[in-house]
Design goal:
Elements: E1 2-7, H1 22-30, E2 40-43, E3 47-49, H2 55-62, E4 71-73, E5 103-107, H3 109-119, H4 125-128, E6 131-135, E7 141-144, E8 147-153, E9 163-169, E10 172-177, H5 185-193, E11 198-204, H6 220-232, E12 241-245, H7 255-263, E13 268-269, E14 274-277
Parallel strand pairs: 3-4, 4-5, 5-6, 10-11, 11-12, 12-13
Antiparallel strand pairs: 1-2, 1-14, 2-3, 7-8, 8-9, 9-10
């Protein structure tokens, strides 16, 4: 299984759209790994985790054929994770010679509602027929082609059943925990009871080197705690790759600084364009 981190930022991006804080000013100067677009992960060229407004830019930057994508997993309805208007272009006359005719979009009921509402004005019937919306709830398990998908409860937006996901292919699994606060041991214990094989886990690190605690996001030290909890509940092993992503400008550390700190805890800090095989 190959993971490519197309974007690794929180909602505002780094540098943030209207911001002049030291972190954002530094990112504009240094560029490189300190510039982050909105969070999105590509798995094996046929699966997208989240669909932000930066998807078009990701396609350009990495020369992707997004018509190969057979499934899109959306965590929740915020626009940096769910930007369905782009799907209006998925078919003639806007898209020709696509590799795959149909795509399945997985998400909670709010995601599916927003998808329908935001595309209603412009989507063509022929394009709509190529998109299948699938509502998932926490702990639902489904099979899509050769991929096993387990939806898990995120700790994020009050009033919405936000999700994170476990994905497995050919016995190898990845746990994707973007845009969530800390999860309790019950979530991990229940996941472990479903006989998973987590070879990599990517976690929300919106607050960088700042501990966020019991909030809607995490920081590096929250990830350290979650890593310990996942180990205790048997979800991850000592050789599981732990990756911090979904970072914002809410930290004083640049990429080199946060990476050096994370390395002390055997945590890898993702950057836009980073790819890893598990």
């Amino acid at each position: 299984m190959r993971l490519m981190f197309l974007g690794t930022a929180a909602a505002e991006g780094v540098p943030a759209v209207f911001c002049n804080c030291p972190t954002c000013r530094n990112a504009k100067i240094k560029r490189g790994k300190d510039v982050r677009t909105r969070s999105q992960i590509l798995i094996d060229d046929d699966t997208l985790f989240d669909f932000p407004m930066d998807t078009y830019m990701h396609m350009l930057r990495y020369n992707l054929d997004l018509s190969k994508v057979r499934r899109v997993l959306i965590t929740h309805s915020h626009m940096d994770h769910c930007y369905p208007q782009e799907f209006c272009m998925r078919g003639g006359p806007f898209a020709k010679n696509m590799t795959v005719d149909k795509v399945a979009v997985f998400g909670n009921s709010k995601v599916c509602e927003i998808f329908r509402n935001d595309t209603a004005r412009e989507i063509r019937p022929a394009v709509e027929q190529g998109i299948e919306l699938k509502i998932l709830h926490p702990y639902d398990e489904v099979t899509s082609g050769d991929m096993r998908i387990i939806a898990l409860p995120a700790s994020h937006t009050i009033g919405e059943e936000c999700l994170v996901y476990y994905l497995e292919r050919n016995g190898t699994g990845v746990l994707l925990l973007n845009d969530t606060g800390v999860l309790d041991s019950e979530v991990y214990s229940r996941l472990n009871s479903m006989r998973v094989n987590v070879r990599a886990v990517a976690l929300d690190c919106t607050y960088g080197a700042i501990r966020h605690g019991a909030g809607r996001h995490m920081g590096l030290y929250d990830i350290v705690d979650q890593k310990s909890l996942m180990t205790q509940t048997g979800v991850i092993k000592s050789d599981t790759v732990v990756i911090a992503t979904h970072l914002s400008h809410n930290t004083d550390l640049d990429y080199d600084g946060i990476s050096a700190l994370a390395a002390q805890y055997d945590i890898v800090v993702a950057y836009d364009g980073m790819a890893t095989e598990i």
